[in-house]
Amino acid sequence: MARAAEVSVMTVSYTYARPERVSEQTRARVREAAERLGYPGPHPGARSLRRGRAGSLGVILGEHLTYAFEDPQAARFLAGVAEVCAGHGLGLTIVPVTGAPGDVDRVAEAAVDGFVVWTTSDDDPVVDAVAATGLPAVVHGGPRRDDLSFVAVDDRAAARAVASAAFAGAHRPMVLSFPLDRARAAGVHRALDPATASFRVTRQRLRGFRDAWAETGGPWSRVRVAVCSRNSAREAERLAADLLAGPDVPDAVAAMSDELALGLLRTAGRMGLAVPGDLAVTGWDDTDAAAAADLTTVAQSLRDQGARCARLVLDEESGGGPVEWRVVQRGSTRRP
């Protein structure tokens, strides 16, 4: 390249790496020579090897790739990560995992400078794979490990607080739950032991809901737990058609997300159930749609949590410290 352009090797290097140090006329000569020789420019992989960094932050998404764009809370979380990446001139690499054996290899081969792990189960092997890379990493929501940074709300305390609003005056309470484990089997359970859930978020929220019902003097065995396979309003809407029919119709439902609660509310509306007279409902996340539906919910900022995860990976923030949350009381629940 240098011989073809009749310049020094250093000038060619500066043309691509530090173009401000080369005159416009010389840059044009170098690029003309590159075109004649069919040289596309420095290989990104080679550049990353020389610099010792890839210039990108990896997000391990334990869901189908489209989930990042379909789920509003996942999108907010990723927006927070992306905001920090943009401020540092870094790319964002989404690494989806599907439960297949190749997941571990996909993590090990990811060309990134660190990882943010979206909520997954305690037994997900990708968490060990992330730790084995030796790169900076943080887990959001769970699992919680001593060797990785961690960011999450106090799910148990928040669940207890919002379920206290849901279960006030209730006689037939129900929980609309996230999946229990990576099998993601949907179904309805009674006397469900929260410890059986390998997703930490699901487990802690179940414990909080159980705490709230125990405070009313009711036995946990009376609380049905309807498990959804994913955080989908459509799935909750379909499931609610059976849950809200028959002799054992719930009079209060604590849902683990606004998406699940909103799906339930749509079915309740079609069935002519009054909210909160016939059915009290709570959600989680305080989305824009929750406010429009007058839904009592837990407010948290997943965008802020995503940004916090990214800053931890970049060593701009130390670990620890609570994540803010609060219960927003609206018209979907009865007043105590």
Automatic annotation (TrEMBL):
Keywords: DNA-binding, Transcription, Transcription regulation
GO terms, molecular function: DNA binding
SUPFAM superfamilies referenced in this protein's UniProt entry, alphabetically: lambda repressor-like DNA-binding domains, Periplasmic binding protein-like I
The keyword DNA-binding appears for this protein: yes
Ranges for domain HTH lacI-type: 1-51
Superkingdom of the organism of origin: Bacteria
PANTHER family to which the protein is assigned, alphabetical: LACI-RELATED TRANSCRIPTIONAL REPRESSOR, TRANSCRIPTIONAL REGULATORY PROTEIN
Protein name from the UniProt record: DNA-binding LacI/PurR family transcriptional regulator
Lineage, top ranks: Bacteria, Bacillati, Actinomycetota, Actinomycetes, Streptosporangiales
